[in-house]
């Protein structure tokens, strides 16, 4: 066998994560007197694909000690990938410096590997600097570079650059990059972009209709809730219940509460709370306080008072705000006796008078 054949065999073994076979093939090649950088590179790659960082670095050190060959730019690119996959950014930058100090030149793989590592580590400034040095140098960005930058801009919520990059590779993204489309949707849902709903809905059309993602559904619920689009929000909530999605963040629940409050839809809020309780969603005192306020505004005082029992069922104690809501509900329609009773209960618990209460 030629050294090139050994290298291909070692690489194939590495990609199937058969490290034992890769190591055996490498030893056979060395015993046959076939020493070159390609063999070392292949074994480094085999260890990299199996996540064996220390062994990959050990092979690199052996290569440096071998007088018959020396590291190539491919060797350094593999080492960059080894450290990048492990989020060892400092080590990766040491390798970049070693390339700068040698007579070797960066390749497109060098740039893309470094950019990918910075994206994974969420180091946006370094990602951008590496990209700019690429743009200004002899090696120009390719499609893979732009895909990496698009992902980086989306994760960093840099919508302006995300959209510019998307325009450059839109056809490629739309055809086969569903995960990246979802990442862009996340970026819009987390932003304050004035046209985010239209942009999100346009991107959603590119995702297969039978594909459901729990996280995406929750992000969309929050966006529609924040935009006051209650019907769209409820459609997604219903879909979440059907797929047994469980919302665990208070922020999403408060966005839903706010949407119902702005729509003055207390009965729909009450229905949602019942479903959320049964589905194991993250409950919070604000859910019940909002329902009490809305019942009070509609003079549905018995239902307002009944919310207290619901709170106790889920171990939400009565706070000063709870009593203040009760006080406002009774006093606003002249139920003086009940209002004074609430004040007495507040004094008993050490809360004092409601902040704007004035009972003569």
Automatic annotation (TrEMBL):
Keyword Repeat included in the entry's annotation: yes
Alphabetized UniProt keyword annotations: Repeat
Molecular function in Gene Ontology: mRNA binding; RNA binding
Pfam families found in the cross-reference section: PPR_2
This protein's record includes keyword Repeat: yes
Residue stretches of each PPR repeat: 36-71, 107-141
Recorded superkingdom: Eukaryota
Family classification: Belongs to the PPR family. P subfamily.
Record-given protein name: Pentatricopeptide repeat-containing protein
């Amino acid at each position: 066998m030629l050294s090139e054949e050994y290298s291909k065999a070692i690489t194939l073994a590495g990609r199937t994560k058969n490290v034992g076979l890769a190591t055996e093939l490498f030893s056979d090649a060395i015993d046959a007197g076939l020493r070159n950088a390609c063999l070392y590179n292949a074994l480094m790659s085999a260890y990299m694909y199996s996540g064996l960082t220390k062994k990959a670095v050990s092979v690199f050190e052996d290569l440096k000690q071998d007088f018959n060959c020396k590291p190539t730019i491919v060797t350094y690119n593999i080492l960059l990938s080894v450290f990048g996959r492990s989020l060892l950014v400092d080590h990766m930058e040491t390798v970049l410096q070693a390339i700068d100090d040698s007579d070797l030149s960066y390749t497109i793989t060098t740039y893309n590997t470094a950019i990918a590592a910075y994206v994974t580590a969420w180091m946006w400034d370094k990602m951008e600097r590496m990209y700019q040095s690429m743009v200004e140098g002899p090696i120009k960005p390719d499609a893979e570079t732009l895909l990496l930058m698009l992902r980086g801009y989306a994760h960093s919520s840099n919508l302006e650059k995300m959209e510019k990059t998307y325009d450059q590779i839109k056809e490629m993204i739309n055809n086969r990059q569903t995960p990246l489309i979802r990442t862009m949707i996340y970026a819009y849902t987390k932003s304050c972009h004035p046209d985010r709903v239209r942009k999100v809905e346009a991107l959603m059309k590119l995702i297969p209709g039978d594909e459901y993602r729990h996280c995406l559904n929750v992000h969309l619920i929050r966006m529609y809730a924040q935009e006051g689009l209650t019907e769209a929000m409820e459609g997604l909530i219903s879909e979440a219940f059907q797929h047994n999605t469980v919302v665990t963040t208070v922020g999403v629940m408060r966005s839903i509460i706010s949407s119902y409050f702005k729509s003055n839809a207390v009965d729909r809020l009450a229905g949602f709370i019942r479903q959320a309780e049964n589905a194991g969603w993250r409950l919070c005192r604000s859910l019940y306080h909002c329902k009490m306020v809305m019942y009070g505004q509609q003079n549905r005082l018995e239902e307002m008072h009944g919310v207290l029992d619901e709170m106790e069922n889920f171990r939400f104690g009565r706070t000063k705000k709870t009593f203040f809501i009760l006080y406002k509900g009774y006093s606003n329609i002249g139920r003086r006796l009940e209002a004074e009773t609430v004040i007495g209960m507040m004094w008993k618990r050490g809360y004092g008078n409601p902040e704007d209460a004035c009972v003569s």
